[in-house]
Description:
By secondary structure, the protein is of the alpha+beta class. The chain has helices at about 1-15, 75-90, and strands at about 20-25, 35-40, 45-50, 55-60, 65-70. The chain has two helices and five strands.
Amino acid sequence: MVLNxxxxxxxxxxxxxxxxxxxxxxxxxxxxxxxxVILFRRLCLDVRVDADEVRVTQTSxxxxxxxxxxxxxxELEYFxxxxxxxxxxxx
Length: 91
């Protein structure tokens, strides 16, 4: 799963001792989607998974809104690595 690969990448490749927090949001019994929030340093991403589609929504500190759709877990993984790398450089 993408979240496991991201955690491994942070710990092994980036030598980062910090962890990614994932908070799952409640769903209905017969719901066809799942939602969770990814937190890493100052990065906060809302993630919604619907069948074969993943959508990530982000609101920046200056109020800028961004929503991106992914059709594969590799696309999502690349996106997460890019944004987490930015956070790591901000020390």
